[in-house]
## 1
Amino acid sequence: MAKSPEYDTQNGKQHPFHLVDPSIWPMLTSFAAGLTAVGGVMYMHDVEWNGFNIGVKGLIAGFVLLLLCMFMWWKDVINESIVQKAHTAIAKIGMRYGMMLFIISEVMFFVAFFWAFFSASLFPVDGIWPPEGIHTIPAFDLPLMMTMILLLSGCAVTWAHHAVLEGKQKELQQGLAVSVFLGIIFLCFQVYEYGHATFGITDGIYGSTFYMATGFHGFHVLVGTIFLAVCYFRSLKGHFTKKSHFGFEAAAWYWHFVDVVWLFLYVSVYWWGGGDAGAVAH
């Protein structure tokens, strides 16, 4: 029986599975992530050496290295998909399962922060939540606007997804451009919010849980925005078709996950846990 042309690549592969070539990028990415984490911890503890805040330098160096690794690693993956045609239908099934498991792990990551917040708010030490002296951010002020921005960006991603399924490349590019723009606007508003908050991460359990939960969500928005920006530039090169667009599909899944987490944060932390109607006695 004749072999399927999909599997008869130039290197003589006679199976539908994708065996990746050796790559240095996973190891370098791990090193960059570790450097970023260590730099962040030292920055929070104001670690200095010869008058220099080495935490800031480590944080910046690690993040720049992370971006470099992301660029080079994704470049190799794109080459596997577009040039080598190695992403067969069977290989894409594995990619989908991998992305699903990754998002599930991210869900459990945020469960820890929600658990800490609800544990502290449902059983407050002083019987009052939010704690005395904490002036929370009104839920129906800037956070509501940020919620609308993020939901609108999710709509733009869905628009782009329908466009690629219908072969409308121009609308795909427009939808991705809008979603990236709104992601950047959301991040700008979050930075503004942090700059004008009256409490810090060291101001008790409320400050700790608030900044850890919303801060890590903001980091995920940053990653998702970069993910979508890569998809936008790939769409300009015509990499996505009706039958082959998993790179964009994975970005869309991730972005919708970010949307859902923010909805839980808004309702739980800003609205219910923020005590807009005043401190709640327990």
Note: The radius of gyration is 22 Å.
## 2
Amino acid sequence: MAERDRRVAVTGMGIVSAIGCDPESVWQSLMAKRTGIARIASFDASDNKVDLGAEIDDEELQPRLAARKIRKKDRMVALGLEATGQALEQAGLVGEPPYDPQEIATLMGSGVGSANSLDEGYQRFAARGARGMRPTSVPTYMANSLSASISLHYRLTGTNQVIVTACTSATNAIGQAFRQIRDGYVGAAVCGGSESCFDPFYYGVWNNLGVFSKIEDPEKAYRPFDSARAGCLLGEGAGVLVLEEWKRAAERGAEILAEIVGYGESSDASHITSPDVGGQARAIRAALEDADVQPEQIGYVNAHGTATEANDVCESQSIREVFGDHADAVRVGANKSYFGHLLGASGAVETIVTALALRRGTLPPNLNLDDPDPECRVGLVGGEPEACETVYAMKNSFGFGGGNGVLVVRRA
């Protein structure tokens, strides 16, 4: 790391997901091997080929939103606001409202945006035409509604931006926040992603893409890296981290939870939906070089792990191409079988899980890995939690459109 580079600390983390609405609840679910995959309850999905997904329990979520005075927001935005509040509180940067203005940047990712509100708008337009559209439609539907709402609600006066790069969105947002702090543009940022896609329109679009698992048993349906894997399943949720310049965080007495030390990105430039070993490997190498870390120093890889036929083999090959024989030793885990594929938010939630694993010295088990695919030639975490003393871990995210983002995280 060059002397001019500033260290970047993680001082706050927040999660809202189908397996828990705060980091501790999520961790307990991971250790208990508890999945959030179930029959979809928020709308009638019976016309779809698959009716499974990982929805958040409203009985737990709604009181949290009410306590933060989060009202009349698109569900994706509301999830992001709740996760941000958790992260800012853990970092010691906010107390009770009203909040004082703070020069903190907001960089968030979402692959889809305000899907639930858009679905409602489509239905109103179909029923009443232009007369059915509400005056609030534009600010509700705009692509930057997530970062704008977070900035407004918590009075964060730094730049606010939304990065839209499909399933890599949140990882790219964290990476960009890391760079802005390291290079001296900002002192602190909230970053991550949010997604909620359980509406008839958007869920139906994904259903007809043909990538959903058709395994009937919800607890067995999502199987990353397993020979019997049959595809992915959607989830909803948000993950947000507070990143700060290390010295700033230390001087104000903040607890440092982890450190972001490297970020790499690339584009496959080969196919809109099919992954590419070369593109993924370039992002992995770039992250390692940025962190000044050798592959042998990485003890854990939190994989993109979508459980589709192409992705898991491709990602395994990408890891082996960069790691060589160390691919047999490095522990590789996938979290999507717990809280579903969160699309643009997945990288944030999985980065938080990675930081928690380093902090607690324990790796979450891989759910439903009964018969590892021999084509996935990496050191996969087994079906029980594993002890882990590694200092460095890696988080991979790869998205439709060919975008790849990789983070390197160091134990604090």
Note: The chain has a mean pLDDT of 96.
## 3
Amino acid sequence: MESFQPWLSYIGIGLGALLGGLVLVWIIVSVAIFLRTKGLPQAIAAFFTRIADGDITGAYQSTTERLQSRTSKKEFAKFVKTNKLHQYQRTTLSIPTVEGKTHRLEVTVITKNGREIPLLMELVKSDDGWLVDALNYNYNPQQTAKSNK
């Protein structure tokens, strides 16, 4: 048993170093994600607050030129009304995925009456802050079927 004693301490030190390394990598990745997405949740909340306050023009102005070239202000207002986004109370966000300068995430808008509206949003960071680059209704029949069970 005494011949195994030094080996056990080396194994313990090795496992501790491995675990410490994994924790360090996790911290570095978490900080990197935080720094890349700093202000993103606040920008999303501000966007939907403008919509809830009836400031469709302000919400539309917080979108990119690319989105504005694809969607007129009238179409944007219709999308908001059709999906009842003006009843916004709060949101839940997924962890964003990054493709180039675009941050894509699933956002669930929770309305004042408790309805959940799943959206797929793309945002880009500009000098002025975050701008919405895409906003799509994220209907997933499989997800709905699972939640109904």
Note: Residues 5-36 form the longest helix (32 residues).
